[in-house]
Structures are given as C-alpha cells and as structure tokens.
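Q: Got a minute? One more chain.
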Amino acid sequence: MALLLNCSVCQHQLVDPVTLSCGFTVCLTCLPSQEEFQRSTFVCPVKQCNKETHLFGPNLYLDNCISQIIKLEQPDAQNITESLQCSIGNHLLQFPITSHCGHSFCKLCVLQYKISNDSCKKCQKRLPSYQFIQHQPPTLILQQVLLAYNQNQAPQTDNIAAANHISNMSISFDPSSNASYKAIPIFLTDFAVLPSQKLRIPIYSEPHRTFFINSLLNCKELQSLCFGIVSRDKANHKGRFGTMVKINSVEQRGNDLVIDVVGLDRFQVTSVLRETDDFLQADLEIKFEDQQDLLSASNSHWIDHRQQAVVKQLPSKTDSRLPPSPDSPMEDVVATVPTLPSSPPAEPVIYTPAIKLSNRIHDFISDLAHSTPSISFCSAIEGLLGPVWLESVQGLHGTLPAADNAVAMCWWSAVVLPVSNTDRYHLLATESLQDRLDIILSWIDDLKFQWGNCRRTVINSAAKVGQ
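A: Always. Here it is, folded:
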C-alpha cells in the first residue's frame, strides 16, 4: 500500500498531500510558490499532466482521504474501509474524484448532490460547477488504492454503514447488457428529441424539480447522469418511442435549473404504469444500434466517436495555464474552424447499403457548405446557405460526421435539416438504419423541390417587374 502513496512530482512518499483537478496528487512543498500562484499563468508541476486548465488557487487544501490513509500505522480492512467511504452515498468510493477543498466522493454521487447543493457536504466550501465535475478525471492514487484493496481484501459489509443511494435506478448503454427496465420515470416534451441532439431544458416549478431529481438514472460506464424523454401525445404512450439523454451541465438560477443534455439511444415504452400531463412512469426497452452499423465496437458510447473529421484548432497555450474559477469548465473551450471530412475516407471502408446512403447525405451537406453566397438566382441553393450555415450548425450540433459513420450521419442530419416534429418522430420510430437514411434522403428531395419552386417563383416575379 505504501508504494502507491508516492508524490507524482518528487516520487517520494507523500507529505501533506494535495490532489489537483487533473487527478494527480503531490506534496504541498512540490507545488509552486505563492508568488507563482499570483501570476496570470500557471504550469502544472506534474510532467505527465496534459490538462490545459486546473482548479488552482493560492488557498490549497490537503487531501483528506489520502491523509487519513497515510496516517494509518497498521492498516486493516475496517479502518481502510472507513477511510475510503463516500460521505454522500455512504458506501465504498467508486470512481473517486477530489474537490479543491480536499474531500473525495464518488463521481456519480457528487454529480447528483451538486444539482440540489452548492456546498461540499463535509466542509461547506463551494463545489465546482456541474460541468467541471462531469469532466474531472478520477483521483489516480485513490483509484489504485481501491483496486489493491478490492483485490486483496473484500469489503466487510458489517463494518460499512447502510448505503444511502443517491439514485435507486441505473442504466447501461452497453448492447450486451439488459435492455429492459421497469418503472422508469420519463419526461414528456412537445417535440421528439433525437439521438445526438443537444437540448436545453428549463426546470422552474418545485414539483417539476422534484420529479427531475427522482427520475435521474446512473450510468456507470459513462460516469454520467441520464433520464428519458418522450414527446407528448394525447394518445396512450404505450409503444411510443423516446430518447435517453445524458446531462452535460446544470446551471442554477435561484430556485430554477437549466439542464443541458445530449441524446444517446432510443427506447420504446412497453407498458405505462402512471401518467400525468408532464410525466410518465413506464417500463421501457432500449433500442441499440446494430453492431454492423457502427464503425467499431468500443467501451464508450457511439456518440463519443461520432466526430471523425479532423478539426483545425487554434493555437493552444501549452506552457501557460490559466487558473479558472470554481465554476469554470474542466478544459478550455477551443475555438474551431469548420472543416469537412474527406469523402470517401482515406482508410478502406466496406460500403454497406447504409454507408452508401450516408455518403449521399454527406455529399448534399457538402454541396450546401461549398455553395458561394450570391444575390443571383443561378441555382436552387446558391446564396441560401453556404459555409456560414455549416459553421453555425456545427457550433450548435457538433462537427459534421464522416461519410462512412452512417449512424452519426443519420441523427446529425435529422437534427439540422428543416423538417417537422412529426417527421422527426417518424424517424425516431423507424427500426432499420437503412430505412432511416432513406427517409432523410426523401426529406432532401422534398427540400430540393421546394427550393426549385422558390427559385422559379422569384425568377418569374423578377421577369414581370422587368416588363
């Protein structure tokens, strides 16, 4: 155990340990001087660190959990278990992260705790923002200690207080896991939310807030909180399709909340247990994408690999790192210049029917993006869209996926194309990827026809004026 408790800078056993927001723990004396903290730039003392920003400040606090472990003269199962407890969930730490105040919690526990509480449960110092916590890496030493502890000594459940579960419900987006879930609370909205779609949801009333908190689902493989959304309909919701969304950030505005989410996988309601005007409690089944339609199998969700384009980044500050406030995001927001993935991609691709359809959609988007803005009417689309349009939609919905990433292309194009909510729900309820891509291509044909009619109308009107 002692070998794990070494400083990431001097490599000696930790003395007065401080855990940085990059996940590394160092001796207090290995940190920069107070003078350097007062400067406008800061460089992490850990050579292995590749984070652009840190939650640094002149007032640093010792890591409480690691300090307790170091002080143990004769570690045994009971006192190590007590040291590795999450005080929010009241159970052994899982994916531990350490706040700047020096206290460690399970990531999922503190994410849900942050929604209703702005202060650390242990010391009442202000917690970082939800977005910062969401992107914070685990505390490396605690991860290693937990791994060694679980391998050598099973936890003594008699010595662990009863777990105070932050959420009683969990969900998995691993296709090999159970896809059916019972009695899941679901939000009702006025429109269909699609996979990969980004959305901002305001929560104003107290009943709305209570239901939102009670409907949160833990996803361990993503280390995120999720919940389900179904479009509101006067008919019975049994058989209706919805989308599981992941929470990216939570903004507190007095007693109100503003939740930023992104769509993940579709689900279908199999049985309705309870229903109100705004909420639903139902059994559901997750509708995973077919493995042959995905570019590659991965432990991460497919949405994390949807942006295959090479994005040109502005020069980053590699040796000058600004100390953000506790509400700053984990990493700097890097400005990007919209670029189009090559089509077809450089690496050999097996062109399935779905990928062929995806290439046609990609070519259409590329044509729109490369059209030259003009006041003339020499083509159906010239001057209507162009690179400004692509830059705008990529800023809102993420980079245009590569042409061979048919799943991502399906949902990305469905979000950006101007179609009705009814059309979007019809797409959400369509099982086959190939059929979904055919629907999108039919939308494109309709748009081309409409633009053609507009062009002819304008030309005829201009001709009459000229007469």
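A: Confidence is low (pLDDT under 50) at residues 155-165, 306-346, 374-378.
Q: Perfect, thanks.
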